Amino acid sequence: MILVLTDFLYISNMKKILLFFLLATQFLIGQNQEQIKKEFTAYIQATNSLNASQTHALTYPAIFEKVTVQMLQDMYKNLSQNPNFNILTNSTNTPIKINEVVESGGRKFVKIIAENQVLMTFKSPVNDPNVMASDFKVSMNAKKVNFDPKSNTFNIIHDITVIGIQDSSTQNTWKFINFSPRKNVIAELFGKEVSKLLKL
């Protein structure tokens, strides 16, 4: 009877420890996801507002070995001062999926998928909006493209994939890289194994 009681107490204590561990793990995961979301939102707001200095500060620094800060500034200038169209983007109030954090080589990585809305208003009449809509669907892998002839505006909905990275070079804060399947910079910077871990 003493052996049975001892076993019962041992099992009961183990269940309490396991439950505590599971709750603590879920709490830490929740906290981590909130921090990722907060820092990702700041990054997206910087890119949406075409703020080159803020985008630079929130982008993973190694990317600027491949893309210079001047190139980023020129791209934002061309978009904000384009003679043919005005462009607005919104990814801050749309669905966001934060995947599981993975670790490799002393770094943490996380894949984030967010729905992005692009409003592109042309300053001159669009001759063939159907052809342009088809082009947007292919080039941006858009889920939805609508054209409003009254405002001369395309409303484009597509998903963007952003990779968050945390390591010593970021002072253990999350910095980000936009991912494109046309050019896998994650594999170039960190190797194919990291790309596989992130299922890119």
What does this structure look like?
- The protein has helices at residues 2-48, 52-58, 69-80, 129-139, 185-190, 192-197; strands spanning 85-90, 96-98, 102-104, 107-122, 144-148, 153-166, 175-179.
- The longest helix is centred in the first third of the chain and has 47 residues, at 2-48.
- Strands 1, 2, 3, 4, 5, 6 and 7 form a seven-stranded antiparallel β-sheet that branches.
- It has six helices and seven strands.
Discrete helix count: 6
Estimate percent helicity.
Answer: 40-55%
Number of strands: 7
* Structural classification: alpha+beta
Q: Strand share of the residues?
A: 25-35%
Largest sheet: 7 strands, antiparallel
**Element-by-element helix/strand order:** HHHEEEEHEEEHH
Radius of gyration: 23 Å
User: Uncertain regions: pLDDT < 50 for 5+ in a row?
Assistant: 1-13, 15-31
Shape: globular
Mean pLDDT: 83
Query: What distance separates the N and C termini?
Result: 57 Å
Summarize the helices and strands and which ones pair or pack.
Blueprint lengths: L1 H47 L3 H7 L10 H12 L4 E6 L5 E3 L3 E3 L2 E16 L6 H11 L4 E5 L4 E14 L8 E5 L5 H6 L1 H6 L3
Antiparallel strand pairs: 1-4, 2-4, 3-4, 4-6, 5-6, 6-7
Helix pairs in contact: 1-2
